[in-house]
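User: Continuing from earlier, I have the next pair ready.

Assistant: Great, send them over.

User: Here they are, in order.

Assistant: Folding the first of the pair now:
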Amino acid sequence: MKDLYQEILSQVTAPGQMFETKEVINESGVTFNEYVNFPDSIRGYLDFALLHADKECIVFDDERYTYKQVFEKSAQTANALINEGISKGDKVAICMQNNPEFIFAYLGIVGIGAVCVPLNSWWVPSEVIYGLEHSDAKLLFADQKRMQGLESLKDVKKIVTTYTPDPLFRSFSEFINEQSISFPDIEIGRNDPATIYYTSGSTGKPKGVLSSQKAVIATLFSWACFSSIMKEVDNQKNSNTPPLLDEASAILLCVPLFHVTGSHAGMFMSILVGRKIVMMKKWDAGIALQLIEQEKISDITGVPTQTWELLNHPERLNYDLSSLKTLGAGGAPRPAEHVKQLDSEFEARPGIGYGLSETNALGALGSGDEYVDHPQSTGRVVPPLTEIRIIDENWNELGEGEIGEIAIKSLGNMICYWKNPEATKECMRDGWFKSGDLGKFEGPFLYILDRVKDIVIRGGENIACPEVEAAMYEHKDVLEAVAFGISDERLGEVLCAAIFLREDSSLTSDELQSFLATRLASFKIPLNIKFLDSNLPKVGSGKSGWLGGYVEATDQSKNWK
């Protein structure tokens, strides 16, 4: 008998349906599936906002904006950028905490065909300067805190947010004042670049992920398609899995907009259905509980740490959380026991997603009964544009149950790593992207088992160990250093380091952490540092062979505190 899931997939993608697909061949001769009915640009996608013009779009502290107001302020931003000399294809950066002006700026940038460059607001000034210079950004939207340390930049125009006025810079409100509330008429195509997100790679500085207009839109339509399929499957099975998208819903935006989870799953998906976006400046489980009750939050999409903190908050039972329908997560796996506890303690159902900045977060999704029944899985491949294979080191596809590297082919994949053709060539072939993650398939369900890349994922933030090691080597007393992750119930992993110092050194952990704080974002600084009495032994590759044996032979939680 035909699988119910596949049967409904065939129905929603059939000719004449919203998610009808067609085959297209790109400039390299690679065949992809593409939606027949989706907009040619993100600017066209923004017109969905006007279908629910009078509905609430953004709630931020005491501020409230309808979808019409958000559309108009974004259009004003677009016109102001043009008056500032920004043209289609120019790079414009954003570096600030979550606030409404982040959204207005983002939508205004992409609405004129410029390239939006969201920079990590936790970066220190040297990291921000790197992102600005590497991306060739011509203008920066930032809050006052992020402006500090950028005084030396002469080639980047700076606009400070209204929330932190500074007489040295123009405020956002001044910048868009008296501008037209209609978007300028600019021709933007599906293949035009749209965004550059920076992601920690396995070596060196963060890499800029350049994506096209169609890649972003393909992701959004694919999630909507998956939601439609799962809703119908559950209707026919009389299941209690809630829909991933609902017109009457409200999402708690509790992750930064500089991540694709925040911008795509939180912001852009809400525009499609008219979902209310309740924004948090930064995560606080206690404040989150208050907002869930006050704003009747139905959806949370963050990292596993956040839903785990909600579950364990001492005041949780004092709040009415009955509006919650989904407890989504991504960026890192949940322990199976966590999934079961969330499902038993909340009326809401847990969900999980897998994707990367390089795929615009498009990959696999697990929700409802399927996720609870397969809690160690990251769900099904998101249809109908995405393919996932498990491959060996020579790109050969492996069979079900075999472990190998996860490769993803989709219209959502990036164009390239900006200014890094070598890294692009290493991970992309014939439309496929090598993720750096090890996994396997069991039936239709994808399992993430480990990482090929030297990456630690702390609370959803990727940390490249070589980048941290390079910063440690800048200290004159450090002769050898190795950074690595150990498991942590709350954050998934935490970063640790083993250091071998010069013989006469008196360097302490606190001193080294302070040294690193001037060079790295705080989340990249090793939580625990162990100083060794001898050199780190090497294996044949030249890398440290000490680490694996030590970690396996000891109780990590005791030895690294």
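And the other member of the pair:
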Amino acid sequence: MPVRVEDIAIGVAPIGADMSASAALGLFLSDPSLFALPVVMNGAVLGQVTRARLTEILASPGGRDVAASRAASHFMTQKPVMAESGTTVAFIAKLAADGNTSALTDGVIVLNDGRYKGLVSPGAILAAVAQENALRARAMQAASKRLQQATARALDVARDKSSFLAFLSHEIRTPLTGILGVADLLQDTISGAEPRRLARTISESGNHLDRLLGDLLDLSRLEAGKLPVSPGPFDLHEFAAEARDLWQSRIAGKRLDLRIHVESTSVMRVESDAMRVRQILFNLMSNALKFTEQGHVSVTLATLEAAGHLKLRMTVSDTGCGISDADKARLFRAFEQARASTAQTHGGSGLGLSIAKGLTALLGGEIRLADNAGGGSVFTVTIPVLRAGPRLAVDAPHKPRMRSLTLGTILIAEDHAISALVMSQALKAAGWQVETVQNAADAIARAGEVPYQAILADIHMPGGNGETIVRTLRSTTGPNQIAPILAVTADIGAERRTACERAGFTAMIEKPIRPRALVATLADVLMADEDTGWELGAKRA
């Protein structure tokens, strides 16, 4: 609690305005601790006579003869610092700091409803200020310590969360290979409409689980500030065409018109993180299409330029059921839906809009929600972008020169039996010979003796991992020193991609394994010309 002036005041009896200077001096001499005498008339404070001032005057040559008989009020400080009860010492200290230093030399007169109550000495003020500063310093030290402890706990939680999510990604996406991979194999091998329908249902359910896991990982990386931004040029017309091709097929069976328009006045080539911009737009489109049974969903892409800055504006409007004002306030929170029954009626996890908002903020933009005049909702995203230069020949999508493909033997290093089965069956069905091992040591031993056309190595295995395999083979003269080695992983984050590139992997294959994508990816790697090479990147297999 702050110290107030009345807390440190002393009860010094006031003197009248007619008391002589010599009498006042006598009071000072009788009490060495007395530093000032308040001068009061009819209850009102006129000023104060300080020991220092009176002593100085009477001690001067001839001062006693001249001044002793005069009224002490003649020598008083007429504008002393006066403070009402309740005034804090901190406030008095601020006055002194602002230039009114008399409180630190003459003290403070304390009033109660304008009437004299007591005096506060300069020493008491300094002591109180020092005490408060000491208390404040200790409080700040304690707060700093608590902050450090909280920061350490938060870092521990963040590390634990990251570790848990990495574990979750691996432990869920690995068995998902058994669901999605086997479902795909069944669709390619079984006959009969009903078995195929069942296999397709399994595949769709697995895809939904995979998307949910991907959303959770994206949300976690956003919250942890670990979602990288990779700016690059892209064309708005191509961007719109991609969205149209992807989503047009998903509205089959609905009485719904999908409209995607690029304003003609827009700058067509801009620079931003195209993948994140695409993710924002697709999440908004998914939300609009989910809640719109008839009418239309309209997407408009445009660029705006103001004050020398270029912005991309994406507007997604629908004629759906709309969103109430109460629901708008919580719509962008993670795991929130506009209505409690939404998940049962329309599905979804409630993560799409939250991720869209987080990605928009990551790119330095903003997202707004409004009502559609014709019913439904309008989402508007505005993101700062750069003007990209014209497309050059080197900017064109690069396709490696291809050579003929002769199917040889593939080595699979995978400790998860179902994942190994899916990869093995998919490659055998395509015509490759396949060998499998369950740990890094066996993979290194086999690859040291037998030449393979390519090696698929899981990142996580007992007795080492995929990086152990690739580093060992790349650094040892043997039949597979330059063979294509593909990393198989459930984690395709930027850190993992960088680690795989540094280790010497040729490409990455993401779990859950999809047989057709696996075959296509491996074929692309093997058919790429050595002079052109293969750019490391994650391929959904």
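Worth noting for the second one:
The two ends are 66 Å apart (CA to CA). The chain has 17 helices and 20 strands.
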